[in-house]
């Protein structure tokens, strides 16, 4: 009897399991009742309306144009009969300037001027000035530049050498105002002369009579020392390989 009950129970359990295996399991859905809390109301805030501020229109200001001043016209006065106009030769090479002046019906005179910036032979100044009138055949004064090597101001011998058969030796020195200098040489030709930069003679001595002079510079400037004239033969040059030694030049400051 007990065994029969056990078999019956197992049969019922198996039938129940078979039924569960053949039917799908439905998911449980929990329904949430609606809440009584009201949803927030969306308020459409109107966008601010921008009011355009009128921009004042700039009134153009007309600036009157300056009144043009009439250019003065100059009438060249005719030259008297027999007069000619002086040509402009400043900056020209002296030979070209000479030819132009001669073609203009004038004559000329040169004065040499020391200038280390312009090429030798350049016309630096002319007198009368260009465009002025001058009687035909009159003189035009021309200042022609030249260059020279420097002579040292100290107690050391500055060697003198002759490289041509004739002429003068030219040097420049920078001297200070009111300073005394002993200028001495054993150069045996001609004389030793001291000029300013425009070749106005300030002092000189004959080399065959003396060999020195004390010179006080009248102002701080560049001065020219000229030695000669000298004259030698071409044979002298050839025997000395083109340069004849001719002594020394000294420019020595004298202490007070």
Strand content: 25-35%
Structural class estimated from helices and strands = alpha+beta
User: Which runs of at least 5 residues are low in confidence (pLDDT < 50)?
Assistant: 1-43
H and E order: HEHEEEEEEEEEEEHE
Radius of gyration (CA) equals 58 Å
Strand order of the largest sheet: 6-13-8-11
Annotation, overall tally of beta strands: 13
Tally of helical segments:
3
CATH 2nd-level architecture of the domain at 154-253: Sandwich
- Look at the structure and give the mean pLDDT: 82
Explained architecture:
14% of the residues lie in helices and 35% in strands. With 256 residues, the chain is α+β, with helices and mostly antiparallel strands. The N terminus is likely disordered. Among the domains are: 64 residues, 2-Layer Sandwich (Trypsin Inhibitor V, Chain A), CATH 3.30.10.20; 100 residues, Jelly Rolls. It has 3 helices and 13 strands. The protein is elongated, with a radius of gyration of 58 Å. The strands form 4 sheets. Strands 6-13-8-11 form a 4-stranded antiparallel sheet. The termini are far apart.
């Amino acid at each position: 009897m007990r065994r029969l009950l056990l078999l019956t129970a197992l049969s019922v359990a198996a039938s129940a399991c078979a039924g569960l295996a053949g039917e799908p399991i439905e998911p449980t859905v929990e329904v949430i009742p609606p809440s009584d809390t009201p949803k927030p109301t969306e308020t459409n805030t109107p966008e601010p309306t921008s009011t355009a501020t009128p921009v004042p229109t700039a009134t153009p200001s007309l600036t009157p144009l300056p009144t043009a001043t009439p250019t003065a016209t100059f009438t060249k006065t005719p030259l008297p009969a027999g007069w000619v106009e002086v040509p402009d030769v400043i900056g020209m090479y002296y030979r070209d300037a000479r030819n132009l002046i001669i073609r203009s019906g004038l004559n000329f005179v040169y004065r040499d001027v020391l200038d280390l910036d312009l090429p030798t032979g350049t016309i630096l100044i002319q007198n009368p000035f260009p465009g002025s009138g001058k009687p035909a055949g009159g003189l035009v004064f021309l200042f022609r530049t030249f260059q020279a090597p420097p002579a040292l101001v100290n107690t050391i011998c500055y060697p003198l050498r002759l490289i041509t058969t004739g002429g003068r030796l030219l040097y420049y020195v920078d001297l200070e105002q009111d300073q005394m200098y002993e200028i001495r040489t054993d150069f045996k030709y001609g004389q030793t002369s001291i000029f300013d930069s425009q070749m106005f003679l300030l002092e000189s001595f004959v080399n065959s009579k003396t060999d020195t002079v004390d010179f006080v510079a009248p102002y701080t400037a560049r001065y020219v020392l000229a030695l000669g004239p000298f004259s030698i033969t071409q044979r002298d040059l050839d025997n000395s390989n083109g340069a004849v030694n001719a002594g020394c030049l000294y420019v020595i400051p004298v202490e007070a």
